[in-house]
Amino acid sequence: MSSTDDDQLAEFKDWWQRNGKPLVTGGLLALVVVFGWQAWHKYQANQSQGASIIYQQLLETTLTPNGKPDLAQVADLAGKLKSEFGGTHYAQYGSLFVAKVAVDSGKLDDAVAELKAVMDKPADATLGELARQRLARVLAAQGKVEEGLKLLDGDADKAYVSTREELKGDLLVQLKRTDEARAAYEKAKQSLPEDGAGDALQIKLDDLSKGEA
């Protein structure tokens, strides 16, 4: 091999060290990222489908001759949702369903536990607000009306102001704080969209007026 060939070989080896490996590594990395991304989406889709199936089965527990959920089956399916898909939307909507079943069964402490878990770490703002309002209602049913009211303090997203203020009014009525209840109902009514049905709120306002007459 001539000195010229040796020089060319040396130059090629130098170029390879500086450029070849990064190019190959970069290409492999790109493939890993692409296939990894596809695998992740496939995994997510499979997870979502699995959670959806269990959630649907949970809802179908009400399809009994007497229309009441099978409590043992509810507990089993809810446990699967939490253990296999904890923190997902399906798992948390499952918790709301379990809380409803608990309330219907008179197990208010169980409902409180389910709702608190969702409210503390909601999958999204809607789930967080649903859990918050339902928890306030359950606490009021336990006689802890003031505790329920505290959950409704602070600013709510515009989409939830009406329902939150109406609930606040209901709890204030329980405490016989009629002036505050009226203010809450009025705020709830004003927060409705122009085409929103405010008939139920007006009835509550009228009832307050009758009670003071």
Task: Explain the overall architecture.
The chain is mostly helical and 213 residues long. 78% of the residues lie in helices and 0% in strands. The chain is built from nine helices and no strands. It has helices at 3-59, 71-85, 89-104, 108-120, 125-141, 145-151, 161-174, 178-190, 199-212. Helix 1 packs antiparallel against helix 2 and helix 7 packs antiparallel against helix 8. It is elongated, with a radius of gyration of 29 Å. The N and C termini lie far apart (114 Å). The mean pLDDT is 83.
Which short descriptors sum up this protein?
single chain; mainly alpha; 213 residues; elongated
Task: Set down the secondary structure blueprint.
Elements: H1 3-59, H2 71-85, H3 89-104, H4 108-120, H5 125-141, H6 145-151, H7 161-174, H8 178-190, H9 199-212
